[in-house]
Amino acid sequence: MAECKKGTHGECAKKCASHELTIHDDVKDYYGKRVKKTSDLKTNACVAPAKPIPAFIRKALADVHPDVTDKYYGCGLVVPDCLEGCRVLDLGSGSGRDVYMLSKLVGEKGHVTGVDMTEEQLEVARKYIEHHTQKFGFSKPNVDFIQGYIEGLEEAGLKENSFDIIISNCVVNLSPDKTRVLKEAFRVLKDGGELYFSDIYSNCRLPEEITSHKILWGECFGGALCWEDLVRLAEEVGFCSPRLVTAKTVSVGNEELERVIGDYKFVSATYRLFKIPKNAVKKSCRLTYDGNITGAEKALEFDCHYTFKVNEVVEVDGEVARILKSSRFAEEFTFQPDAQTGPCCAAGKVCPVNPFELAEQVKSGDTPSATGGCCGAKQSCG
């Protein structure tokens, strides 16, 4: 269902609310009663991460109880770097796999909150709080689970400016109101905070025969946002331009559903959106990565444009410079004075990357554009 046009919301509020309630009920029924484990899914939406999983993350995942993992329905890997001591929120946390994995990575001084609307999923998640507390050697739990809607975090009791990071794994596509999801995420994030999430995206806006199909919606295809609309919505809400991290093509793998899908294409993509203070200066600069982030001791893969190798000088565009200086990454880099000169390429304005093109590059073995050092190749607007 398309969003209400500006100025007409009062006329269609009841219709919007009814549509939203119907989708919520359908999704809760799908994941609460119809799908009991990953093998019950009818498509290939739950794809493996686009890149190999680092050893320390594999270890954290291996420590999650099998009953929790069996009900995992994600489409990527949502583990941003530099997590120690952070307050993290998982939108659509389901059975709690990512919550428990992240709870180990943030450590006992950090905290992870999971929000989900499905009672059956939350029942599984809450059952294993004490198990994981003991497994990780913590003196007390550093997780909690809240029943609520990802469009209504305020109604769920989550205060503004209260989280360092928000993650979400293949859940935003299940929401009937993506704009509200992004607005609520922006509200509860602290300045400098980040929304780091994987989701399913379409190559263009989908017709009603797909968006009204209950199984395709439940399988994450029917509610997929066109990737270009994500770029627009993120900036309208107040986030910086979305930074594409990874992308991988997704097939339906079901002949009956493929006939409904037709020629429309889908991709699983991971984006990072930052809430940057309005007064933050947007100016390109040179910097070096110090190598102190767990799991990224030699290099930090920030997005598909930038990979920062330890002690190598990199010139970044103004948007990335503003992000790094205003976020939790500020202490992980050494920023060089503006007056410093040297043989370094100019940093152009980086354009949003088409995730379908990136997925094809990765599939064909081409190296995505990235800065491997001072003069690494970058995609930029002409």
From TrEMBL:
Signal peptide: none annotated. Gene3D superfamilies: 3.40.5.100, Vaccinia Virus protein VP39 (3.40.50.150). GO terms for cellular component: cytosol. One of its GO terms (biological process) is arsonoacetate metabolic process. It comes from Conger conger (Conger eel). One of its GO terms (molecular function) is arsenite methyltransferase activity. It holds the Pfam family Methyltransf_31. Belongs to the methyltransferase superfamily. Arsenite methyltransferase family. InterPro entries: Arsenite_MeTrfase-like, Methyltranfer_dom, SAM-dependent_MTases_sf. Its EC number is 2.1.1.137. It catalyses: arsenic triglutathione + 3 [thioredoxin]-dithiol + 3 S-adenosyl-L-methionine = trimethylarsine + 3 [thioredoxin]-disulfide + 3 glutathione + 3 S-adenosyl-L-homocysteine + 3 H(+); arsenic triglutathione + [thioredoxin]-dithiol + S-adenosyl-L-methionine + 2 H2O = methylarsonous acid + [thioredoxin]-disulfide + 3 glutathione + S-adenosyl-L-homocysteine + H(+); arsenic triglutathione + 2 [thioredoxin]-dithiol + 2 S-adenosyl-L-methionine + H2O = dimethylarsinous acid + 2 [thioredoxin]-disulfide + 3 glutathione + 2 S-adenosyl-L-homocysteine + 2 H(+). SUPFAM superfamilies: S-adenosyl-L-methionine-dependent methyltransferases. This is Arsenite methyltransferase. Residues 84-237 form the Methyltransferase domain.
